[in-house]
Specification:
By secondary structure, the protein is of the alpha/beta class. The protein has 13 helices and 15 strands. The protein has a six-stranded mixed beta sheet, with helices on both faces. Strands 2-1-4-5-6 form a five-stranded antiparallel beta sheet, covered by helices on one side. A two-stranded antiparallel sheet has the order 12-13. Helix 11 packs across helix 12. The longest helix has 38 residues. It is globular.
Length: 390
């Protein structure tokens, strides 16, 4: 399935959105970029909330907009979720979920309440009022309501930005499950690299109203100049260097505040330049193992139980289970298996592949830390020379 969008829109003399692209829709496609780059405007054009003269929007073989033809939002069968939940406060959770479901023709209903409430773990919330829910619970109900119209496309506009860090960590696994199990393609807007890393299958980079690149998450994370790495790794200092600068690691690039080909000296009193990095192991279907996931596997080996491992990490059982499911799907082999007689009665243990994955990651991680230490030593020498020259 491909979504094609062609549109040009000017907001005075300060901003122009100019897009002409075909976006493959499989899993979660993230529109990523700084605030004000046109992500939400593009989402509104796709949904039909913004009608732009001369625009073309085609979803598969369905022409949603071209010339005088314009299909309104309610006929595009799109599920929308925004930063604010927009639930109906005078209805219970159950009635909010059924609001769109009852208005969906029987022939088009593919997703039904029992499956959706189980998927989002909201069965215990059905009789509550909206004002009795936490922020994370409200967003899960909003997701459920959007799914129950059996949409052919989900559009999420920064659905996690209004949540605190802990709530965000709790709800992200539900987004992952929804993407994997609902079968509905998702386009999500965010400017948070950690959300992209955990949820995206494909990333569309926007800058100043234009699509600069569209690529898989694996490709995006493998590029040294990726905006994801820059946004997630650079310290808050104008003298910071990107994670990799080619052959001369002390060369400052224009876009990082220096001049091409010249060394950028640290001013006296300014923070020292520091090197940061992250390590992942990749399976056939993408990144499956990072430091936190390795710790989870090690705790399962230690406790013989997924629930006890999750408890020791102050993580919900569902979160731990979702992480394991994601790891094993992306690794292509089972890493954990159930067994009888674990420390918690009946438990879990690592498969030989799980044990091997831990050993491999730890070995690579040790070498990676040695590499970063070498860079730190080189940087320390550079800082000392820079201070003495100044």
């Amino acid at each position: 399935m491909t979504l094609h969008v062609q549109a040009q829109l000017n907001y005075g003399q300060d901003f122009e959105l100019k897009v002409d692209a075909g976006l493959p829709l499989d899993g979660v496609t993230v529109l990523f970029g700084r605030s004000g780059c046109g992500k939400t405007t593009l989402l509104r054009i796709i949904s039909g909330l913004e009608r732009i003269r001369g625009a073309t929007v085609r979803f598969g073989d369905q022409l949603w907009q071209q010339g005088k033809q314009f299909v309104p939002l309610h006929k595009r069968r799109i599920g929308l979720v925004f930063q604010e939940h927009s639930l109906l406060p005078h209805l219970s959770v159950r009635e909010n979920l059924l609001y769109g479901y009852r208005r969906t023709p029987l022939a088009l209903r593919r997703l039904h309440p029992p499956k959706v409430t189980a998927l989002l773990d909201i069965d215990d919330l059905l009789e509550r009022r909206i004002d009795q829910l936490s922020g994370g619970q409200r967003q899960r109900v909003a997701l459920g309501r959007a799914l129950l119209i059996s949409p052919q496309l989900m559009l999420l506009d920064e659905p996690l930005s209004a949540l605190d860090t802990q709530t965000k960590q709790e709800i992200i696994p539900f987004f992952s499950r929804m993407a994997a199990e609902s079968g509905v393609p998702i386009i999500m807007v965010t400017h948070a690299p950690d959300e992209v890393e955990r949820l995206a299958d494909r990333v569309v980079f926007l800058n100043d109203g234009k699509i600069e690149r569209s690529e898989s998450l694996r490709e995006a994370l493998s590029r040294p100049d990726s905006p994801l790495l820059a946004a997630g790794s650079l310290p808050a200092s104008k003298y910071s260097l990107p994670p990799a600068l080619g052959r001369d690691r002390c060369t400052a690039m224009k876009k990082h505040g220096g001049k091409q080909g010249k060394r950028m000296a640290r001013q006296p009193g300014e923070p020292a330049l520091r090197w940061r990095g992250r390590l992942w192991l990749e399976g056939e279907e993408g990144t499956f193992l990072g430091y936190g996931r390795v710790v989870l596997l090690e705790r399962i080996r230690e406790h013989g139980s997924i629930s006890q491992a999750a408890k020791s990490m102050e993580m919900s059982y569902k979160h731990a289970w979702d992480l394991l499911a994601s790891m094993q799907r992306q690794a292509g082999v089972p890493l954990v298996e159930t067994c009888r007689g674990g420390k918690a009665g009946g438990g879990s243990r690592l498969t030989p592949a799980g044990v091997k994955a831990i050993a491999l990651f730890r070995s690579c991680h040790d070498k990676f830390r040695e590499f970063l230490a070498t860079l730190e030593e080189s940087q320390t020498a550079f800082n000392s020379n820079s201070d003495s020259e100044s």
